[in-house]
Amino acid sequence: MSNSNIGVIAMTDTGTIHKRARGLFGNGFDLGRLLLEGRAFFALIAIIITFSMLSPFYFSTGNFLIMASHVAIFGLLAVGMMLVILTGGIDLSVGSTLGLAGVVAGFLMQGVTLEGLGVALYPPVWVVVILTCAVGALVGLVNGVLIAVFKVPAFVATLGLLYVARGVALLMTDGLTYNNLGGKPELGNTGFDWLGFNRVFDVPIGVLVLAAVALGASLLLNRTAFGRWVYSTGGNARAAELSGVPVKRVTVLVYVLSGICAAIAGLVLSSQLTSAGPTAGTTYELTAIAAVVIGGAALTGGRGNIRGTLLGAFVIGFLSDGLVIIGVSSYWQTVFTGAVIVLAVLLNSIQYSHRRPSSAAKPKTSATQGSKA
């Protein structure tokens, strides 16, 4: 057998091996890409393994449920923030909206006195919940109108509402805290602590609320025309508008939904604490943004999903609680959280920078082939 025949056989065998490998792992299998795109999940697994080795109290069902109830607050904020970021916007007011929502709920639970009539009204808890969510929606509506109609940059508009909402909360309370929000049976306003302390099948209500909100948001994004409008607005707002997408209405609605999510988070937090203070939720907007970024969303809009955002929230929550359990200083917790955010942004940049050249190369190749023809 000649050397040329041997070479042909070797090349054939090598090609067969490559084909079988592609059949086994899938076309274009790339371990690095898999790790990059699933970084939030792998980071969460690594955090659980690491802290389980460092503390005997970390890996237990009870502790996981407690940590999940903490994550519910950030997760609710992150879901709303995710919707905004998908459109290419940002909402810095969610932390203050959370605080304002808690204060409004506390104010209503204390009773509303009508001095002219000489009576005090004690609304039932379901009325408190609806009115509190309406306050969150109002803050989101103002944000959305400023951004969509008056063309105020999202950063500036939501930063302004951050201060306005926090200031209103401070004015309502004179800087104090509403305590004892459990209500009284004779007043018919008991049950506010149900969100914070009750459990269904041993799962905290706050976690179930997060699951319900996340499921609803996921269905909204994946199964409705509104979801497609959100992604197209974030991808290219001008092109989406020319295609008939109501970009202004979509922008307003995502900020309204973000405000409602923040209000729900405020209700859950106030219920867990059975108190409402005007400073609650300070810097929580940064944690929500971090959860979205860690989950793989692009801050430029058009890319991301609810699943990744929830994983990002659990990464931050489980990391923070793990550091507390092993006795790390709260100052170092801030450092670690910041480092995780920077790393997440860096990985996002790497992930999406790899995608742009590949998509841009296709027209160039076709143009070259056309010139050759």
Distance between the termini: 41 Å
Number of strands: 6
Strand order of the largest sheet: 1-2
State the helix count: 15
**Shape field:** globular
SS-based class: mainly alpha
The main β sheet shows up as: 2 strands, antiparallel
Residue-averaged pLDDT, rounded?
A: 85
Poorly predicted runs: 2-26, 357-373
* Proportion in β-strands: under 5%
- How do the SSEs run, as a string of H and E? HHHHHEEHHEHEEHHHHEHHH
Radius of gyration: 25 Å
Q: Helix share of residues? A: over 70%
Oligomer: single chain
Question: How would you briefly describe this protein structure?
Answer:
This protein is mainly alpha-helical and 373 residues long.
Walk me through the structure.
The protein is built from 15 helices and six strands. It is mainly alpha-helical and 373 residues long. The strands form three sheets. A two-stranded antiparallel ribbon has the order 1-2. Helix 5 (94-110) packs across helix 12. The longest helix has 43 residues, at 330-372.
Keywords:
373 residues; mainly alpha; two-stranded antiparallel ribbon; 4% strand; disordered N terminus; disordered C terminus; cell inner membrane
Q: Which SSEs are present, and which pair or pack?
A:
Blueprint: H1 3-25, H2 31-37, H3 39-54, H4 61-86, H5 94-110, E1 112-114, E2 119-121, H6 125-148, H7 154-173, E3 178-179, H8 194-197, E4 199-200, E5 203-204, H9 205-223, H10 225-235, H11 237-242, H12 247-273, E6 275-276, H13 284-294, H14 306-325, H15 330-372
Antiparallel strand pairs: 1-2, 3-6, 4-5
Helix pairs in contact: 3-14, 4-9, 4-12, 4-13, 4-14, 5-6, 5-7, 5-12, 6-7, 6-12, 9-10, 10-12, 13-14, 13-15, 14-15
